[in-house]
Specification:
The protein contains twelve helices and five strands. The chain is mainly α. It folds into two domains: 1-64, no CATH class; 65-194, no CATH class. Strands 2-1-3 form a three-stranded mixed beta sheet, with helices on one face. A two-stranded antiparallel sheet has the order 4-5. A hairpin with a 2-residue loop joins strand 1 (9-13) and strand 2. The radius of gyration is 18 Å and the shape is elongated. The chain starts with 8 loop residues before the first strand and ends with a helix. InterPro entries: SKP1/BTB/POZ_sf.
């Protein structure tokens, strides 16, 4: 997914290449714009990298993000806002996109995604109770992820509901955290556990 033969740049995350359009990322993020403009030529790829991401002379940029995070972000960027509103954006995709739009300062997309997160974890319990049935669609361990996002984005308004839901978890789930598709695990901090 996200390998366009006429793409102008290859973004590599966890040895997975995404051949996309440089302008798409550069327009959405000044950080990507600067990264692309200030990038020095990539060293020649190893034989293993060539088999995974054949570049055909296309510039290659390596990022420290996970492939799942990049895939989630590209879904939103390439399919536009209708992806967030008209299609199902699962919680892991939402969290991945919030992390990257925060990191790469994609403010307008970030604000829209945070609006979606605040619908799931509203500021007050009365609003949450009105929509509590939506939690039937989410595993409660997503609340662990929400706590981490609250700290990352300095959004304390989502902490009361997310911590309340964490308190509903069994001890093993609370300590074990929430495993992502890419293998990373979101855990509560010691301060959050106390």
């Amino acid at each position: 997914q996200f390998w366009y033969p006429d793409g102008t740049i290859i973004v590599v995350a966890q040895s997975i290449g995404f051949r996309i359009y440089k302008g798409l990322l550069a327009e959405a993020s000044e950080m990507f714009h600067d990264m692309f403009n200030n990038a020095s030529p990539s060293p020649p790829p190893s034989q293993a990298e060539r088999s995974v991401t054949p570049s055909d002379g296309c510039p290659v940029v390596r990022v420290s993000d996970t492939a799942a995070e990049i895939r989630s972000l590209l879904n939103v960027l390439l399919h536009g806002r209708q992806y967030m509103h008209g299609r199902d954006l699962d919680f892991e995709d939402l969290a991945n996109c919030i992390r990257l739009t925060h990191k790469y300062r994609m403010q307008d997309i970030y604000e829209a995604l945070m609006g979606e997160l605040k619908k799931i974890f509203p500021e007050d319990f009365a609003t949450w109770e009105e929509h509590a049935s939506r939690w039937l669609d989410y595993p409660h361990t997503d609340a662990i992820v929400a706590v981490g996002l609250a700290h990352l984005t300095d959004t304390p308004s989502i902490l009361p509901i997310s911590l309340y839901l964490c308190c509903q978890l069994e001890g093993a789930a609370l300590i074990g955290g929430r495993a992502r598709v890419d293998g990373a695990v979101d855990n509560l901090s010691m301060d959050d556990l106390i």
